[in-house]
Amino acid sequence: MTSGTTPGLTRFNTSADSEALAALHEVCSSSAWGSKILAQRPYSTAEALFLASDAAMAELTAEDLAEAMAGHPPIGRPKAGDPTSSREQSGMAGASAELKTEMLELNLAYQDTFGHVFLICATGLTGEQMRDALRQRIGNSSGEEREIVRTELGKINRIRLTRLAEEESSA
User: Fold this and answer.
1) pTM of the model
2) pLDDT tens digits, residue range 54-105?
3) Which helix (H) or strand (E) holds 93?
4) Using CA atoms, how far apart are residues 29 and 59, in angstroms rounded to an integer?
5) Are the beta carbons of 68 and 60 closer than 8 angstroms?
6) Rg (CA), the chain
7) CB atoms within 10 A of CB 81
8) Those residues with Cβ within 8 angstroms of residue 155's Cβ, 6 or more apart along the chain or in another chain
9) Distance CA 105, CA 22 (A)
10) Cα distance between residue 131 and residue 150, in whole Å
11) How far apart are the first and last CA of the chain?
């Protein structure tokens, strides 16, 4: 999707600010990120939207990142009734009870260390890959981890913005 607008992007560009902001909140729960994306409408292409998202993500403060992370459930425990988190975490759906228990323990240890959920762009990853990443990242410094989280959030935002831009009709 490199040229032209799509039905979803056109709808996003022309919707009321409140509707567009609600859609952006579904992508990323940082109000600073959402406000920056909203202020730059209309977008001529999805790529322009992605670039704006990347730029806004790069500018988020630690507090903004914390707000964004608060919208994400722990790996292995997607939000009930939320098809987005279930889809994104599908690599854990068939995980063994042992792996699920290990992920819960690692998630809690990570949260104790960093004060927020372990965040990874889980789309396409297996439960084992997520566990291995968590094991590796738990030894990071807070500063290192904050920048990894920023990168992972950026990946998640692009996936979610792609869905927003490609939607044929609003649900």
Assistant:
1) 0.88
2) 999 999 999 999 999 988 877 777 666 667 766 777 778 778 899 989 999 9
3) none
4) 15
5) yes
6) 17
7) 7
8) 121
9) 33
10) 19
11) 22
